[in-house]
Amino acid sequence: MEGESNGRVRVSPLEIDPEQFRLLGHELIDRIAKLLESLPTRPVTRGESPLDIRKALDADRGLPSCGEDPGQLLHRAADLLFDHSLFNGHPRFWGYITSSATPIGALGELLAAAVNPNVGAWPLSPMASEIEAQTIRWIAEMLGYPQECGGLLVSGGNMANIVGFLAARQAKAGREVRTAGLGDARLRVYCSKETHTWVQKAADIAGMGTDAIRWIATNDRMQIDVSALRQQIEADRAAGERPILVVGNAGTVSTGAVDSLTDLAAICREFDLWFHVDGAYGAMAAIVPEASPQFAGLGGADSIAMDPHKWLYAPLEAGCALVRNREKLRDAFSYHPPYYHFETEAINYYDLGPQNSRGFRALKVWLALQQAGRDGYVQTIAEDIRLAGELFRQIAQTPQLEALTQSLSITTFRFIPRDLKPGGDEIEGYLDQLNNELLTRLQNSGEAYLSNAIVRGRFALRACIVNFRTTQADIEALPPLIVRIGEKTDAELRPAPLRR
């Protein structure tokens, strides 16, 4: 119930008095600190079923009519999360491209929520808006991109890429698509077959349809075939289609492949196309001297997507879209309803992206960038890359494992029993099945967490290291673990015709 005391103090069931807030905050921070300290000795995950999780939550329970004690609620919430989660902060989490999150980022999230600015318009978030603008400039500086570019933080890679895609559509469609629609524009976009499925979502959302995508073959390094790209563009133009956009990958999700960005930038200049780089995972490797030559063409992009919650180790969620010409973002997104009276000349982020109400994503990134500095990030990203290379070497030296690809911090491989020789549909089909089941058992074991990739048509195990907690010892433990689980799985799974 709500009420007033002496006409001056409102009593709300949602308020927590300052002393109780301090006590609850201290207790919660202590529990979080103990969790982080215990991560190396915990399983990565318990491998529980959805039914197990729902039972632990008491998922069918109805909403309580009366309020409950906030201390008890926080304690129960921590128990649920600490006992029933997959920990991407664990040193042996190498699955999807989700990094171990910085502790300062977690504290930054608390601070951001306490102030709770709406970073959609400058008057609603004066300091938060300026912190986001500075964060964008720092990211651009790290990538060797013009610091006067436009940009904003979004939810993740999908949205960052979609922002670049929509800016390209507006800039290159040759008509006012925001008011008149696409009509019979027959717009076409180009990307390699290794490109993430965000491009399908973008084509759908943009009203172009997924048939507008031209999927270009890759070479033996899993990079886009530049000659095939040129041929497809020329064929489409001859057929009356309108090419508008080429997507280059700066670190594919499956294998970490980096397209020839310099060649793609040159083709886009030649044909007057928008050049977008999906660097959601890999772009930050551009700051590492050993890796930077692969990213030589990054500065020639019209737009770049990168994710701070990947290789800047920010807590989820934090994606970033950069556009060379800031006005192209305004052209793609700006509307001014009559109830907006934000006349200030400072940046209003509702003009630059799809959101009006926006949380303060930048603070956790801004804090970590300063804690580590550029040199700290160079060191940490380089170590991730080194560990992935070391894993590849150890796999290549293990008789039951076949090393497949290694690029940036992604290594792919598969388990092959000693007495099976790869080749032929029957054996290859069984190896796909075996490695698929091996992966499931590994994930459920909690001993380490990998994901999968399809490499040259075959099912592969995939380790992606974006994890500042991973050590050499963790890497050395993986090959024997895979062999142990693989041999047991093979003994149980192999069909009679393949037994000797």
Please explain how this structure is put together.
With 500 residues, the chain is of the alpha/beta class. It folds into two domains: 39-63 and 71-102 and 373-500, Aspartate Aminotransferase, domain 1; 118-360, Type I PLP-dependent aspartate aminotransferase-like (Major domain) (Aspartate Aminotransferase, domain 2). It is built from 15 helices and 13 strands. The strands form three sheets. It has a seven-stranded mixed sheet, with helices on both faces. Strands 10-11-13-12 form a four-stranded antiparallel sheet. The protein has a two-stranded antiparallel sheet with strand order 1-2. Helix 5 runs parallel beside helix 13 and helix 13 (362-396) packs across helix 15 (472-493). The longest helix is centred in the last third of the chain and has 35 residues, at 362-396. The chain is globular.
